[in-house]
Amino acid sequence: MASVHESLYFNPMMTNGVVHANVFGIKDWVTPYKISVLALLYEMTTSKPIALQERRRLNKLILPLQQGPDLTLGQFLKTVGECCPQTAYAVKLRLHEMADGELKDMEYFFATLPTPFRAIDSEAYKTSVVGLFMRHMLLAYNKLSFSQVYKLYKALQQYYHSQFAQPGVSPVGIPGLAADNTDMDLTSTEDTMGERMEKDELDTTPLHESDLSRGPLSQKQAEYFLARQAYLLKNDENKALKPAALQDELNNMLKFNPDFAEAHYLSYLNSMRVQDIFISTHSLLHYFDRLILSGSEGKSNGDEGYGRSLRYAALNLAALHCRFGHYQQADLALQEAIRIAQESNDHVCLQHCLSWLYTLEQMKGSDSSVLTEDSVKMAAHFCLPYLASLGIQSLVQQGAVQGKTAHELMDAMKETDILHWKHSLSELIDISLAQTTSIWRMYGKSTMAQQQAQLLLNMSSLEQVNFGVHQNNTEAFAVILCHLAELHAEQGLYGAVSEILKHLKDQFPPHTQHAKLWMLCDLKIQFDRAMNDGKYHLAEPHVTAIAALNKTEGLYRKALVLKALNRTTEAYSILQRLQLYCEKTKYTEMIIRVMLATAELHWESSGFATALPLLLQALSLARQHHLQALASETILHLAFTQLMLGVPDQALGVLHEAMEPVLAHGAVMDKGRALLLAARCQVTIAGAQVKTNPHEKSAQTLGEAAAYFSMLDCKERLRDVHYLQARLHHTLGQTAERNKCAMLFRLLDQELPAPGAAVAMRL
Amino acid sequence: MAALCSEFGDLVQIKKQLISVISLCKERGLVHSVKWASELAFALDPLPKNELPPPAIFTEEDCQDLDAFGLAKSYFDLKEYDRAAYFLRGCRSQKAYFLYMYSRYLSGEKKKDDETVDSLGPLEKGQVRNEALRELRVELSKKHSAGELDGFALYLYGVVLRKLDLLKEAVDVFVEATHALPLHWGAWLELCNLITNIEMLKALSLPDCWIKDFFMAHMYTELQMIKEALQKYQSLIEAGFSKSTYIISQIAVAYHNIRDIDQALALFNELREQDPFRIENMDTFSNLLYVRSMKPELSYLAHNLVEIDKYRVETCCVIGNYYSLRSQHEKAALYFQRALKLNPRCLGAWTLMGHEYMEMKNTSAAIQAYRHAIEVNKRDYRAWYGLGQTYEILKMPFYCLYYYRKAHQLRPNDSRMLVALGESYEKLSQQVEAKKCYWRAYSVGDVERMALLKLAKLHEQLNESDDAAQCYIIYIQDIFSCGEQLEHAEVSTALRYLGQYYFKNKHYDEASLCAQRCCDYNDAREEGKALLRQISQVRDQTETSSTDLFGPLSSNNTPVRRVSPLDLSSFTP
């Protein structure tokens, strides 16, 4: 390390103690590889007509070749040869002329290059991509001193001979690379070419990534590399380099040019990927130390000078601590950022600070709606649409949890949506859709949720598609996909669920930021499945895993397992604790669920009367917060209690209220349970009467319920249904049906280990 | 110690060895080793004529190569390395072989330096490397495995490996070189640069020779184990090297590192008397003069050095310090820049330049300079500390915590970093951490004697009066026991607080003592008098009310106090 740096300590371009990042004001310089590219361009502009298709392929190649890192001659010729073997041969010939000739051949080559200033009608005109590149190269070449030219020539010879010392490595072209290019239009002017190029970047990526660690990159190449990797990190992490490889590359870049501050920033992002607080802090601070230098020219502590980067440095540090969950540190850093921003009257920065402040408060679990409202107002005042609607979204989220009316929330969402589309804030559009999905799900409208989720997944993003990558690794996508998985699981479509989860796993590998979302979702689904199947021993290990990801959820599930295992006392104490905790944090959904579980515990000790007030309380809570799914669930519980208390008429009446929403939106399990309960009520009402009508009706209901249960393969409940069916048929005197049902019951009964809870005793 | 004495017992033998190694090194153009050995030899008593070592034995091969070697050596001395190598290529003697390889190596280095000036682009500059290194390595490693390398060639092999960043191999080869030729100081010095920690040092098996003690002492200085280093040097002096300027300068540098300024200054003055035209280490000397604000001495030194050689890094640093002391910071920065131009590897200059920019309130340039210093040497704690200070000036106490922490990591026992950390924590209202820092700063030996005072004030703010009083007491004891006349304002604050504290806790004797002491200081005089009046008032009251009952009792049985009594009678301020 030290020996590499020896020559770098001193910088001749130092003025006023500040070294400018770019010492000579040249962003690019001539290398043997660049000469090969020039030779290629020369061949393309001057030579005989090339077949249209080949020409098109070559055109598509130009930009990656110009921007990418230097390739060996073999790779270069191979790439060109794949597009057009004839040109590749010509390029090779020209290089051979130079390398095996004398210095004057190279000088002659540069002299004969079409000067972009003269060639007005050719592709190499000065404003075109090619022309610009040629101008850069010519300028750089003309600046070289005598010894440098000689060195360049030596390097060229070495470059050529390192490839063609061993014979047999001639460019073998594969004509007709792929037919998928034919749909492109034929008028390929230089300007549109650039964009198309980017789309096809993906195909050429191996070309760049295979040999990144060779040699230093020029400033241009380095900028391109950084931009590309940063974009990939933001939008599709899996396509970016692996963390270790990227870090190597960055270290290499910094070794040759320690002043290249952006590389430090990328290093910060990269180490965030692997949760390395040490390097990320180091790189972040280093980046801002460097940034302060470059932004300081002639400006003092004002708006544009380095004072600005100081503020953002502190803010970024706060964000970093936030990401790592160091709330106290984050708080201190944030206070600092706010203080300096206030001192210099930087309202924009203050707004950013404020939005971080409420985020921090939220993360800490305290109520921050007042702060958020302030933030929204101020952001709107200072015309910062992004921050404003981010604030509104945060408010909506809080409002939804606190039970604001649905129309208020939806109105707010609609208004921010208008704002998003107006300013094309595609990121926020995604978030907004994900949020709507979540809200619908919370309200228990699965169809609406599904529709919103599909909307996001099928929407083409507003953002430019760069490097062939759509933005699809944001939190919004993860949330949506998790919802979809859960929705499918509710409908018993486990094949689809596993496919979605697999996709999630690919898209968000376990070490990434949003991986916890799908992990939790996956565990929940597995847990529910195990519980439905009555395999409590399978459910138990999941509880620990869930608790690791989400404490509250883990505790709740633990209570459920304990209840199922008849360890009532423990379950009860956990539920009590949980309820207290949730009431403190205002987690309404969980409160209701805990109440329902407690009610079920009361049933087991036949305390149906004690369960009633609890259930009524739960019902009012659910209605107050518009949680339809939970409300119907509560009604089911209520109806069951009433049935047990011997008022089946009342029970059936209550049940009818919930039946419609359950059948429309509920999970398959709920549908089955509702129908089963309805049938039982009907049977009880019909009671001793030997009328056929009600009995037949209930038999039909039971059949439907059985269908739902068999969909989920929920054997215990299926057994109950068969038992009831058999009894019913017996009452109706239908012996054949009765025997069939009895046999089905017998089969299931033998298959299941122990007789579960008594048929009558559960919902 | 005994072993050391017996080893050094025969100074004559050592002198003989030195003289022979000087001639060996001289023949091979290893000028720095020659210089070191000669300095040491000069410090020893001259030998009588019959004791002089015989000239090295001439082998057959040496005879054959004599003419070619003589020619090549003259070219070598004129820095025509390629030419020297050309005439040596056929020679077979060890001496000629070394010079042959060495000239090839130096030729590569020279070309590398020339090349950096006109490389093709800025980024390629880092790529410029000594092209000869690879070839040299291949040839040398062949000979090495055949066991044909002598001590000098091994040294060269090690250097080549180090330049190729093959540090582990280089260490092994250097160790081998010291075994083959223990007297060659260059090999030891190279080894010194490669050892990064004490464990690594202990793991090496080094030849048992008197020169090893020099090496160990040097190593301890490098590893900041100053106490051990001083011990070593002391024993070397006792063994008979008392006149060596090398040892004196090393001890002076060591004292500088532990901030024992008086000792260091005395040694440097002695050094300048003995060796008035010496330029090495004078930058350190000027640092000391700077710290003590000894303007005339620094000015004299600067002028003297300019007369000797104005284009030396040390001279530039001295002049930079001189201007800095005269508050001409632009000029100071200019001279530090010049020092860097002369030798980009000069670590201190970047940091010093950073300090200058700080003085000029050019924070961004200061940050830049400090960052450069860190890039050169990640373990430069002064640069980290400087960065922290810069951000502290920019009023970003949380931000600067990171830098201070870094500095503290590098110098865990330096109170300045700890005090800085404590101040930052205090600004962030993290009193618990701040208290810890101050207490630790005091425990490791507070240089500026501020930690306790700050700690006491912190306790005072937090209404922990017992702790505060305790701290003030230790502070006062500390100040008086060190005997120096520091600023009195702070002592008076302490006394004032203590007076009030004792008064509140009804220890009137101590309170009145403190109040009396207060009267010695201008700013606390009035309060002291007021307190005395109060005390006498209270005493009168208690005496009138309870003389008969509690009078005898209270004079004998003073209640047990948490705070030890303040015994100020033993010292007079």
Automatic annotation (TrEMBL), chain A:
Subcellular locations according to the entry: Cytoplasm, Cytoskeleton, Spindle; Nucleus
InterPro entries according to UniProt: Apc5, Apc5_dom, Apc5_N, TPR-like_helical_dom_sf
Presence of keyword Transit peptide: no
Primary localization: cytoplasm
CDD domains registered for this protein in UniProt: Apc5_N
Spans annotated as Disordered: 185-214
A GO CC term assigned to this protein in UniProt: anaphase-promoting complex
Associated pathway: Protein modification; protein ubiquitination
Superkingdom, taxonomy of origin: Eukaryota
Domain Anaphase-promoting complex subunit: 264-363, 602-659
Keywords: Cell cycle, Cell division, Cytoplasm, Cytoskeleton, Mitosis, Nucleus, Phosphoprotein, Repeat, TPR repeat, Ubl conjugation pathway
UniProt cross-references to SUPFAM superfamilies, sorted A to Z: TPR-like
Domain Anaphase-promoting complex subunit 5 N-terminal span(s) in chain numbering: 30-162
GO BP, one annotated term: cell division
Task of the protein: Component of the anaphase promoting complex/cyclosome (APC/C), a cell cycle-regulated E3 ubiquitin ligase that controls progression through mitosis and the G1 phase of the cell cycle. The APC/C complex acts by mediating ubiquitination and subsequent degradation of target proteins: it mainly mediates the formation of 'Lys-11'-linked polyubiquitin chains and, to a lower extent, the formation of 'Lys-48'- and 'Lys-63'-linked polyubiquitin chains. The APC/C complex catalyzes assembly of branched 'Lys-11'-/'Lys-48'-linked branched ubiquitin chains on target proteins.
Family: Belongs to the APC5 family.
Name the UniProt record assigns to this protein: Anaphase-promoting complex subunit 5
TrEMBL record, chain B:
Gene label: CDC23
Cdc23 domain mapped to chain residues: 13-252
Family designation: Belongs to the APC8/CDC23 family.
GO cellular component assignments: anaphase-promoting complex
Transmembrane segments: none
Ranges for region Disordered: 543-573
Pathway info: Protein modification; protein ubiquitination
Keywords for the protein's UniProt record, in alphabetical order: Cell cycle, Cell division, Mitosis, Repeat, TPR repeat, Ubl conjugation pathway
SMART domains: TPR
InterPro entries hit by this protein: APC8 (IPR007192), TPR-like_helical_dom_sf (IPR011990), TPR_rpt (IPR019734)
Organism: Esox lucius
Short name of one Pfam family: TPR_8
PROSITE patterns cross-referenced by the UniProt entry: TPR
Spans of repeat TPR: 313-346, 347-380
Name of the protein: Cyclosome subunit 8
Amino acid composition bias (Polar residues), ranges on this chain: 543-559
Protein's GO biological process: anaphase-promoting complex-dependent catabolic process; cell division; positive regulation of mitotic metaphase/anaphase transition; protein ubiquitination
